[in-house]
Amino acid sequence: MKVAVSSDVFRLAQVFTISRGSRTEAKVLTATVTDDGFVGRGECVPYARYGETLESVTEQVMSFTGAWPDLQDALPAGAARNALDCAFWDHAAKQAGKRVWDLLGLPAPRPEITAYTLSLDTPEAMQLQAAKNAHRPLLKIKLGTPDDMARLEAVRRGAPDARIIVDANEGWTAEVYADLAPHLIRLGVQMVEQPLPAGADDMLGEIARPLPVCADESCHDRASLPGLRGKYDMVNIKLDKTGGLTEALALKAQAQAEGYGVMVGCMVGSSLAMAPATILAQGVAFTDLDGPLLLAEDRATPLHFDEHGVHPPAADLWG
Predict the structure, then answer these.
(1) Does the reported pTM lie above 0.85?
(2) Which of 9, 18, 79, 122 is at a distance of 20 to 30 A from 26, taking alpha carbons?
């Protein structure tokens, strides 16, 4: 088995801003595993929030010299293990002449409606973004600043009929969230994602949660679940956090068994990064796999998006 990794850059269609900063391109790593004439691919997005860089993740990928069954113990949950795990799944499917969902014993994935993320901007600009995308059934709004109420009101004016979820990216305090919550409900927001910083979110267990609160930065893999009890109603599962599809599927099953709702999210990457997550997203409460919709360029065989949502990948792309 030969392992390789390359760096790829995809231009964004427009500047993408969250409470932590802005970007104009998606920098990703593509891992490939080659054996018996078959090549499997997986993509990851190293994330500085978790102490990852392109260089550190590349080093992690190339440090792996074992077989696929060794991967879960050899590397920690994170971007490097994700790229390799998804590459191994792709390789196994190609070698078997089957799709990954067949290997998993699952039904063929169906399209899932995905959120479309509106970048953090001025209220006026966000209202224009919302109006431009008002035809989309589910909008996700990046918040996490002192001016959030004006932004939220503006988005609702721009898209009066869309379902809305919001992501504070750890940007609020308990007091700010408590003040905003009634207004979120008034404006029809259906879920709020990570309102308080991970590691400083105990207050969520002590204040009212009048709408579902979803753990993102506070939930990485199954080991995170005990720390979420009483504070969160949902978990956002991302392959780059779980360290691949294998752990993501296990986390989904355990989270649902413990009564959590599930959201399947993504970093800003290409269709190759989203492809395995379309399997994970089947039947969840919220799907947020809009990374390719934010790009100005994508993989040669991109995922297909239409009014039915994001479709499962063609075999040429992955799996």
Answers:
(1) yes
(2) 122
DSSP lists the bridge partners of residue 132 as none
CA distance 171 to 51: 19
Q: State the catalytic residue, choosing from 94, 140, 142, 252.
A: 142
Angular region, 8: left φ>0, alpha ψ -120 to 50, beta rest? beta
The reply to whether 241 belongs to the active site is: no
Residue identified by tokens 């709408």 is 211
Helix (H, G, I), strand (E, B) or coil at 39: strand
| Residues 99, 318: Cα–Cα separation, whole Å | 9
Here the tokens at position 216 are: 């993102």
Catalytically annotated residue among 94, 140, 231, 238: 238
238 is catalytic: yes
Contact 232, 213 (CB under 8 A): yes
* pLDDT tens-digit series, residues 101-138: 999 999 999 999 999 999 888 999 999 999 999 999 99
